[in-house]
């Protein structure tokens, strides 16, 4: 190739033929500033060098050489005396395209830079990097460093013309690039250090895009990590496309756990001949950052850039697989890898769906780190979860991670209830919460038979919606609500997994109007009739507007938490009659309703109603009673307990609803206390004269014939006249009934005294004392 002198104005020029045939010759070099002529060592490959090109740029300061008549002083002569000025000389040290380590020999007292020129990965630019070696401490050459890249275009007359170029300036390092032209295949490189241009002239030949020449690879891609069923942790990656060479690259993996980005403590692993590596010694609970770079085996120093960061955090256990899809009846095997080396896999237990411990016959240890289990999926669930847990006595320590088995087309018993207002529908299933689901619906204004047949033949109808679901905490979803609804349309309902919408339950088809739970009847009334019949009436709910059937239940009010309910036969009218076994009893009554054809759901029971008794008059007579003393030696008070005998009702014209105790002290003060229908009553007596009366009462008034009792610690003994036994009994109004009850009730109370007095004995001022 002929380089015309016009390309280098104001420069001495030697044609290439002279460069090859004679020594010495002067080649021009380009710089912005003074132009120096440097000695040239001829490249054995001619004047064009291949990319990539790597060399060293070295500069040294030596005494100036003397020139006489165009002849250079012999290089082996002694240096000039110290009075001569020194000249800076800069040379490309290894003028060759053979890439590899730098030679060990360095120019004496020289300052050197490494320079690498290459084509980028996209083949759009030539890039030259000039760097001061990190191991060098020589800073004897002051000033800046300039790097210039220039296109040379080959013209038809086989001349080389210069086109535009790029100049880059720095001190310790420079990265300079120039865009490639379609017509250009030569880039000229010049370097300038402290206004001294390095020699010789460097012209680089750009290989075609399809060339398989070696170049700096791109960083590896697609970093992933997996664990094997033997517990081995594998990091894998792939090379970027297209490959620059069919030869397998070499790789370096580095990883650390340091949170410091400025001073990370990297650990390095070399990998050859494979795109994966087994990592050992990683501990659970730590965050590891990993990167990979690569190089061609022939270019051990030409590394790619580091890949993007990949992070690994190991939990105490790893599940293989974490997710699996299976059909009901399949056998599924899951492995649990213990990443905590202090735990032996043979001690681990397996828990199904966070509550059921599985029998040991279903699982076994593969080795010290791995346990495996084989299970069959549940029939009525969208998915099953498996936990591998470490036992601690009666409890277990389980990681929050788990393995999930998604079940194909499970038959889940979905049941729905339409509200009494006909504006919403709530759906539940199996009475068990399910986690990680979407509850889906498709509604069409068709009957469910028509809709189901249309979908069976592949004709989708209606609009798909997602329902609003109520969560039950960590246990999952327990119900879902659709609102608003079209009560006469058909709804297709199914469940989908949130993480895998291809996993869905078998659908059900529902018309909301067939699943209504109406509001309970209101306005319940109950009236007790003298004939012993309890008449009931109520008001039906406003919606839905169709005929109802009713159910009535009643129970005698005893104060118990769970009454003994009796249920009437189904009623189609909004009233009913009940025969009362106890005309004076108070009853609890409730009523509920549902569609007359039996579709839908029973309403809730109405509010509890307490019946009232039917009274045409007040009670005739109060109850009989007697008393028991309980003396307190430490005080002057005596506890008096009244034992009350309830008289049977002879005529059902009235009922006793409650008892009233009337007290009258020695000062004449009268007080009353309602005590209900009790069989005993107690009060404190201080020893003074005290009168007690017990009356029966209902809504019509109180009894007028009542039993009275007067208490006195020092009663005056009356002279008893000589009466016959019959006369005495009549005078004291003892009847055989009370006497028998007195003897029976006071059996064993030998130290007590009991006083009885009826209204017919009121003429006595004091009671006779009768020993028990």
TrEMBL record:
Q: Give the superkingdom in one word.
A: Eukaryota
The UniProt keywords, alphabetically, are:
Glycoprotein, Membrane, Receptor, Signal, Transmembrane, Transmembrane helix
Q: Has keyword Glycoprotein?
A: yes
Q: Which Gene3D superfamilies match?
A: Immunoglobulins (2.60.40.10)
Q: How does it sit in the membrane?
A: Single-pass type I membrane protein
Question: Is the Membrane keyword given for this protein?
Answer: yes
- Intracellular or extracellular location(s): Membrane
Pinpoint the Fibronectin type-III domain residues. Answer: 219-317, 520-616
Recorded GO molecular functions are: cytokine receptor activity
One GO CC annotation, please?
external side of plasma membrane
Name the chain's protein: Fibronectin type-III domain-containing protein
Q: Which organism is it from?
A: Oncorhynchus tshawytscha
């Amino acid at each position: 190739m002929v380089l015309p002198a016009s390309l280098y104005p104001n420069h001495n020029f030697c044609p290439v033929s002279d460069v090859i045939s004679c020594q010495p010759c002067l080649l021009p070099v380009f710089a912005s500033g003074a132009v120096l002529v440097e000695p040239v060592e001829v490249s054995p490959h001619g004047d064009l060098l291949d990319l990539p090109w790597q060399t060293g740029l070295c500069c040294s300061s030596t005494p100036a050489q003397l020139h006489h008549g165009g002849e250079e002083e012999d290089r082996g002569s002694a240096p000039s005396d110290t009075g001569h000025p020194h000249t800076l000389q800069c040379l490309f040290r290894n003028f060759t395209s053979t890439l590899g380590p730098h030679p060990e020999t360095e120019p004496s007292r020289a300052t050197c830079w490494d320079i690498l020129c290459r084509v980028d990965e996209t083949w759009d630019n030539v890039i030259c990097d000039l760097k001061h070696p990190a191991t060098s401490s020589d800073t004897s050459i002051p000033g800046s460093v300039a790097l210039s890249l220039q296109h040379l275009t080959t013209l038809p007359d086989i001349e080389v013309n210069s086109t535009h170029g790029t100049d880059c300036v720095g001190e310790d390092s420079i990265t300079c690039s120039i865009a490639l032209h379609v017509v250009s295949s030569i880039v000229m490189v010049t370097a300038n250090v402290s206004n001294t241009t390095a020699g010789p002239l460097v012209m680089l030949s750009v290989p075609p895009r399809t060339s398989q020449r070696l170049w700096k690879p791109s960083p590896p891609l697609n970093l992933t990590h997996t664990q094997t069923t033997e517990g081995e942790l594998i990091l894998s990656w792939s090379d970027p496309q297209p490959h620059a060479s069919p030869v397998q690259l070499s790789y370096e993996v580095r990883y650390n756990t340091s949170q410091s980005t400025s001073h990370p403590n990297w650990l390095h692993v070399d990998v050859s001949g494979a795109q994966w590596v087994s990592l050992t010694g990683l501990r659970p609970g730590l965050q590891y950052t990993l990167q990979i770079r690569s190089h061609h085996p022939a270019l051990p120093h030409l590394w790619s850039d580091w890949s993007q960061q990949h992070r690994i955090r190991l939990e105490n256990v790893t599940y293989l697989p974490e997710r699996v899809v299976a059909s009901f009846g399949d056998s599924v095997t899951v492995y649990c890898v213990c990443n905590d080396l202090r735990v032996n896999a043979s001690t681990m237990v397996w828990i199904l769906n966070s509550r059921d411990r599985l029998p040991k016959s279903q699982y076994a240890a593969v080795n010290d780190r791995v346990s495996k289990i084989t299970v069959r999926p549940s029939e009525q669930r969208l998915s099953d979860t498996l936990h591998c847990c470490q036992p601690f006595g009666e409890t277990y320590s389980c990681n929050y991670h788990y393995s999930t088995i998604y079940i194909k087309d499970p038959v889940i018993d979905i049941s729905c209830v339409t509200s009494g207002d006909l504006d919403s529908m709530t759906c539940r299933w199996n009475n068990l919460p399910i986690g990680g689901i979407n509850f889906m619906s498709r509604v069409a204004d068709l009957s469910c038979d028509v809709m189901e047949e249309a979908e069976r033949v592949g004709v989708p109808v209606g609009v798909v919606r997602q329902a609003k679901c109520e969560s039950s905490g960590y246990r999952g979803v327990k119900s879902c609500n659709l609102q608003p609804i079209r009560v006469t349309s058909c709804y297709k309902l199914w469940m989908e997994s949130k993480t895998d919408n291809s996993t869905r339950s078998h659908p059900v088809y529902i018309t909301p109007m067939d699943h209504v739970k109406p509001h309970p009847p209101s306005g319940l009334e109950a009236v007790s009739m003298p004939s012993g019949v309890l008449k009931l009436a109520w008001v039906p709910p406003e919606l839905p507007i169709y005929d109802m059937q009713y159910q009535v239940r009643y129970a005698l009010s005893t104060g118990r938490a769970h009454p003994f309910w009796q249920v009437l036969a189904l009623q189609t009218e909004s009233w009913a009659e009940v025969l009362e076994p106890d005309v004076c009893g108070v009853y609890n009554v409730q009523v509920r309703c549902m569609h007359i054809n039996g579709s839908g759901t029973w309403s809730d029971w109405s509010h509890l109603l307490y019946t009232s008794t039917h009274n045409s008059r007040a009670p005739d007579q109060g109850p009989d009673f007697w008393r028991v003393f309980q003396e307190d030696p430490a005080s002057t008070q005596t506890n008096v307990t009244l034992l009350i005998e309830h008289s049977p009702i002879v005529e059902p014209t009235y009922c006793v609803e409650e008892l009233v105790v009337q007290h009258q002290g020695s000062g004449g003060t009268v007080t009353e206390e309602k005590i209900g229908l009790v069989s005993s009553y107690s009060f404190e007596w201080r020893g003074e004269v005290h009168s007690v009366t017990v009356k029966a009462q209902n809504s019509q008034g109180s009894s007028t014939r009542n039993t009275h009792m007067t208490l006195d610690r020092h009663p005056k003994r009356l002279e008893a006249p000589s009466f016959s036994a019959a006369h005495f009994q009549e005078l004291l109004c003892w009847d055989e009934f009370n006497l028998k009850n007195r003897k029976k009730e006071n059996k064993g109370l030998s130290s007590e005294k009991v006083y009885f007095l009826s209204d017919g004995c009121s003429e006595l001022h004091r009671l006779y004392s009768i020993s028990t």
